[in-house]
Amino acid sequence: MNKIAEITSKSKASILKKLENYYHETEFSYTPSIDPVEHIYTTDDMLSELKQKMSDNKYIVEESTQDQLEEKINEIASSYGYTKLIYPQNLNLNLEKINAKEKVCFDKNIEDLRSEVFHSDFSIIHARVGVSSHGVALVLSSKEQPRMLSLAPKLCIVLLKKENVVKSLSEALNLTKKEHENLPSNILFIAGPSRTADIELITVFGVHGPQQAHIILY
Fold it and tell me: Mean pLDDT across the stretch 170-188?
């Protein structure tokens, strides 16, 4: 055995031994990491900060009361002339109050709803948390609220309770993990409408997602 092969063999044995010992470690203790928001400028007024940073991210920020959500949604959709709605199973709104000619519930596999999903004008989704430090909404993707609802329509309307605003991304993730024991397999951090820019720095909206994103705080 040459010198290189001998070193490789010993290194491999050493690494495997450490992995084996680590696997059987019984005194392992978890130490929480420092919240990385400490290096980000934030204010104590999380709601005002959230609204400002979401506006900076090109969200159109709206406010409403819970009993007037349908009216606010109608106001937004009519401003664009949109009439085709696709919505999640857990929408929990009065659909009869929403003025849309077509209303499709995303309650099937995408293969069975492909045409409806990609030809809908607007969608309505619920955000679990708003993150004030970054101006983003955390949306949980699930069978009841599929990810494509936030990607396919031209307009995405996000609903967020004002009480569900946290300061940092780590706080949002820790809250989600605590509620679900483990993090869900698909979490979306939505920072406004879809956008991209070419080498000339010309920003174009709606290339791989909604052209407009409204968030309604209630």
Answer: 87
